[in-house]
Amino acid sequence: MAATQPDVGSSPASEAGHPTKIDRALLKVAAAVIAGSIMAILDTTVVTIALQTLIVEFKTSFDTIQWVTTAYMLALATVIPVTGWAAERFGTKRLYAFALVLFLAGSVLAGLAWNVGSMIVFRVLQGLGGGILTPAGMTILTKAAGPGRVGRVMSLLGVPMLLGPLAGPILGGWLVDSVSWRWIFYLNVPIGLVALLLTLRYLPRDAEPTRRAFDVLGMLMLSPGVALLLYGISNIPRAGGVTPGVWIPALLGLALVAGFTVRAARVENPLLDLGLFRNKRFTIAISTLSVFSVSFFGVMIVLPTYFLMVRGLTALEAGVQLLPLGLGAVVTMPLAGKLADRIGPGKVVVPGLVLIASGLAVFTRVGPGSGYWTVLAPGLFVVGLGVGGTMMPVISSALQLLEGPAVARGSTTANIIQQAFGAIGSAVVSIVLAAGLADQFDVPVSQGQLVATEALADPLRRGAALELVSDTYTTTFTCSLALMVVCLVPAFFLFRQPPGARGPGGH
Question: Cys staple from 396: which of 82, 154, 459, 504, with CB 3.0 to 4.6 Å?
Answer without folding.
Answer: 154
